[in-house]
Every structure is written in C-alpha cells, then in structure tokens.
Amino acid sequence: MTILLRAGAAVVAIGLCAGSALAQQPTRLPGTYISGQVLSVNDQIPLRRARIEVTRGTWSPEPVLTDDEGRFSIDVEGAAPYSVTATKGGYVVATTTVRQEDVARPLIFRLARGAVISGVATSQKGAQSAGTRVVAKRQDPSVDGIPREYSTTTDDRGEYRLAGLARGRYELTAGFVPQIVIRDGKPVQDVSRGPLVVIAVEAGDQVGGVALTSAEATTQEDYLRVLLERDAATVIAPGRAPAPVPGGGVRGRVLTASRAPVVDAAVRVNGINSFRTVRTDAGGVFSAAGLRPGQYMLEAVANSLPAWGYGQEGLGRAGTPINVADRIVDGLDIVLPRYVAVSGAVVDEHGEPIQGARIQALQVEFVTDRLVAVPIGTERRADDQGNFRVWGLPPGTYLLAASVDGVVSDTRGVRNGYATTYFPGTTVVSAAVPLELRDDATASIAFAPVVLAQVTGTAYDGDAPLVSGTARLVENQRQGSISISPRTAAIKSDGNFVFRNVAPGEYVVHVRGDGPGRTGLFAAQAITVGTDRINLNLKTSYGTGLEGRLLFEGNPEHVSCVTSAATTASLILENCTLRSNGSFSMRALPLDESARADAQMVLGINGNEFFTTNLFGRISFALVTAPDDNWYVKSFTINGTDVADSGFDFGSRPGNIDNAEIVLSRNGASIAGRRIETPANTAGYFVLVFPASSDRLPPFSRRVKFTRSASDGTFRINGLPAGEYLVAAVSRLQGTSSGGEWQNPELLDQLRSRAERVILSEGQRANVSLRLIER
Question: Does one domain contain both 211 and 318?
Fold first, then answer.
C-alpha cells in the first residue's frame, strides 16, 4: 500500500517501496527513526543534500542532509505524529505529517521546481529600504504541505529574493510584524505594511524587477510614532493650523561618509525629560522644534545599521551633547561612518548551492596577547542559489565563516557533515585567509564534508559529579594564529556534558563550576579530535593559592592603604597615599589555552600582604591602574624567582605558595620627545616603546607601552623599568590602553628596523626625536 499526499506541485509518498533504492538501505540498529528519499518530481532524479527537519510539538532532533542518493534517516523520540519538512534550493518546500503507524515506512518526497520573485523595496520617500521584511502570502486555497507564507529581508541596496514558491497567486508587501495595537476593538496594522502587489507564478518561473514600497513604519518605534502623530492630527480642527510650540529646537542633516544626504533616516532627539524621533527629507535634512531647554543627544538610524550620534568619532564612543535654550540650534550634521559589504556564494563539494547556509563576518583584532576574530554585524543567510551579501561592516580585517545545521545522513553511524568553514574553504582557523575590507568585496566559500566526532565527558567535584557548571571547547591555537570564540555546553546535574559535531583538530576542554561553594572549581584537558568519539573524566579543584608581601618604593616615608573588596580578575588596593591618592589594580592573564583567567585576587591584607586563589596553568600578572603613570611593577617574585617578565606555571593541582613578593615602584624611567617634521597641519601620531630584545613577553608587559601625541606635538611615556628600548612614532594605531595591536609582536617586529634605540637606567628621563612611520 502507498499513500500519496499531493501538495500542489509537490508529492509526498509514504509506503513500502520494494525494489526501490530505499529497499537497499543498510539495516539500522534498533530504535525509532524516519527514513526515506527525496526526488525531483519531473525526472525522479535523487536530490542530494536536501535538508530534512522533524518536529513534534516543541521538540526537534538535529536536522539531517540527504546523501548522494537523496536518502535520509533521522532518529526520533516520543510518540507520533511528527511533522517532516524537506527543503532543497531551487525547489518547493514540502511538509507532511507522519503518524505512528507510518513511522517505520519509507517516506518519499518528490519536489517540484520552485518559482522566484525578486526586486527592490524603497521607502515612501524613495530611499532604498534596507533590512525590511518582504512577505508573499498565497491567495489560492490552502494545500497540505505547501506554506501559506514566504518571507525574506532586503539587503542594504533594498534588494530581495523570494524563492521556493509553489505555483499560484501571491500578495507581496514590504513592512514588519508589529505588536498588536487594538483601536476601536480592531487591530491596527495599516502603517506596518506597504502597498500590495499581486503576482502569479508557475513552477520554475523567475519573476524579477518587482518594485515594492515599504511601510510608512518599518520598526516598532516608527509604528507607535506614526500612530501618535495621527492621533495628534485628529484633535486639530479642519482648516486650522496647530498653534506654534514655544521653546528651542535642533536642525541639521544626516550625511554619508562621502557627504551625500541620507533620505528617510530616523533621528532620535534624547533629553532628560524628552524623547522624539524625526525623519530626514529628500535632502537629508531633519528638524525638531518645541524642545524644552536642556541638554540633548542626537543619533541617527539609517539602513538598519547601528545608531550613530552627532559628534561621534568611533564605534563605541559617545556623541557630543547639544545645549538647547529658546532658539533653533542649526548646522548639526550627523556624518555616518563608512560601511562595506562582502558578497559571494556558498557551494558544496559537488558545486551545488547550499540554501540557508549561515554567513558571519568575524572582525580580526589584537586583544590582550593574541589575534581574536569576533563576530560583528548580523548573520546572513544564503539564498536558493547559494548567494549571500553580508553588509553593514566597518572597514577592517575579517574572517568569513559559513555554517550549516545538520549532518549528512548515514545509517552506518558515521557522522559526515559540514563543519564551520572559513574562506576560502577550510575548517581550520589558522588556514583561513583574512579579508582586508576597505571597499565592497567578493568572496565565495566551498564546503567539503568531514567526519564529525562527538566529545563527551563527566566533571567531578572530588569523587562526586559536579552538579552545575559550564564546559568550553577551545581551539588550541598555535602562536600567532587567530583565536575564535569557544563552544560552550552546560554541565548537567550528573556532571555530564557533550559537544556534538566537532571537526578534527587540537582542542582544550575547560570545565568550571558555578553556584555557592563551586565557583572556583576548574579543570582543563588538551585533546586531539579525529574520527572517533572521545569521552573524558575531568576532576576539578580550586587550584593554587598565592600569598605574600606587597612592598612600595618611592620618596614618601609613609604609605597608608585601605583595603577594598575583591573583584573578579583583579587585585584592588584603594586610597594608597603616596603624594596623591588613587587605587592600584592588577590583572592575572593566561599564557595558554589551559590556564584560567578569572582568579580572585586581594591586596592589602594586614596592611602590606596580598593573596590570590584559583590559579591554574601558566599565568602572568600586570599592573593595570595606579595613582599615576610613574608606577610600575619592579619585581614579582615567586619561590625566589622574578616572574614579572615571564609569568609562572601554577599547574593544575591544588596547592598553596606563601612566599611571593610584589614590589611596586614609583621610580620608573621615562621617555619624552617629538617628531622631527612638525608642519602646522600635522595630525596626531602614536608612539610605541618596546624592548630591543625580540624575546616574547607576556601580555600587557611592563616593558611595552604606547601613547598618543599631545596637541602641541609632543609625547611622554612614564613608568618604564631599566633596560634597552626601541621607540617608534607611527601614523595610525588601533587600540586603547585596555588593549590593541600595540600588543602584537608581529607589529613590533615590523617597526624594529625604523625605531630609535634608547638605553634607560632606573628613574632616568630620556628625550628623543622621531621620524614618523606611515602605516
């Protein structure tokens, strides 16, 4: 018996298919699973790498991809019915329901070619409508297995592509889904969607150039604003102008980095007792009148990009406040930063597009002591042709990563799949090719299947399971390579944790406890992942404690300190009186992937003692803040050895070291000077001081410092230990005092041959003249 579920142009069959390819599937181990095959409805060709998803209420297993013969098998649990969906780029999505009596029967999906509708959405003022939701609703009668609605989002050019549509008539709109607002007993949504456009398509149609006008409101904030403005308009009698509103206001423009006007940008006017949003006109001009006297901040939002403030000079920096009295403050131009985009395609090992692949840009920056790739911007999806466009990126250096949920279906228990792949097509971060994005670029990624392993483990607190905590899977990076964010997994009440679908490579597994009495527990183990499953037993401990004396060197005869509470990852000693009041702060920094970085440290116990706890692995220590910049760590002695420039290996076993000594000195050397060439219009520059020796130093070394030149073109760097140094003036440098590329040994090596050499003794004041190094 075979049951056919006809869904428009797609056909789903459930039955016993003797003699078919399904009949030759390898025998499965006992268990509940759904198996089948995905075929093209027209020529019965197997569709490889179709995505199969199963849901039962809120539960869903990991998706699978069909094999080279279009076959699949997916484990399920609980009682039927199950909803099974098959998706393949270029074909109509098909969904069917599998009842309990049909679970063991092979399931056949026959997919028809899908239609495509594409075009551009613009705002009601004619601007490109970026990041706007476009919806196509079927007007034809409902058909089982065929979606009633398809949706996508426009890119930064306002372009959209709706794919996989079944034949029929569709109602297209551009807008958003608002929270329901009830008025007169009825939901009001007219401003949340633009004018309707009706399109009829047949199987395989490619309908392009369909222009849409986006909604009057494209965000929840806009939606409420428009409704409030309409309410205000209704209370004014017809033919009668509203009374003038007393007070001051603001007026200006929103411009691109190239000084072009930004049409229909939202400008937020934020004051202590006032909040208002206005839109720019065709010339990019905005105006907000009737403001109460006070201080206001302006920020513009355009093209679904982050807000940018008036006077803002960089990401994460504050804008410039505007003082408003009883007049209009004019000439307030908000210049948006320049953004770039990267476009390309994602294909599998057969050169076929991977629909739905997730594409993420990772910005590469030097943080602490290594290059780190941090996700930035919004993750984008590849369309039915595998094409993608990641936009809204500040210029910089990036890795481009693509990932696909699910493994390739294999009834033999081998988990082949697509691990996260980096441009141009590698699963190894160190082999990825960084992209220098200064303008829009093109980069494509080719996937190749690899055998994915499973890493499981049990964490212990003594002999008992660790009942709560977190496990992390950290890629073991070789020196100089790029680090990425680790994967995390919760530790269950029985101490167990699991990482699924792990690509081959070198890793370190961290486990740490949380909750009362377990916060300091930690363990780490290095592993090599191949094709076999790995099971670990990790016994946590509280690590090593470190205590000793805290000594000060300087001119004052007396030092009086008040101890503050301990803070994570730092030691704090407040109100140390030494010519000026201030606080000392030190950080514990890991030197490899097996070390723990969040040791709790306290200074000033009994006046001049300190202690730290929970130290694991190779750790270095750095002075972060002091009453003034003349202070430096003169020595940090453990077991009779000065580790200030090398760090110390505390191992992984519990213990205590009680003979440490920290000497903080105010007798540091200093270097001051200026550039040799100082024309009147010269912009500021940066100065780096670092050791003449090329020996590797710990992060935030006491011997590596940087500063920016003062307004008069001079510079000064204080608090240096005695030694031989190189000094370089550079035109551009990324970073702040909390970290940046000035910590990068590769950059320091590039500057060595052009830097000035200086030898300093303790407390010496040196002067140098520097030639600018352009970067």
Answer: no
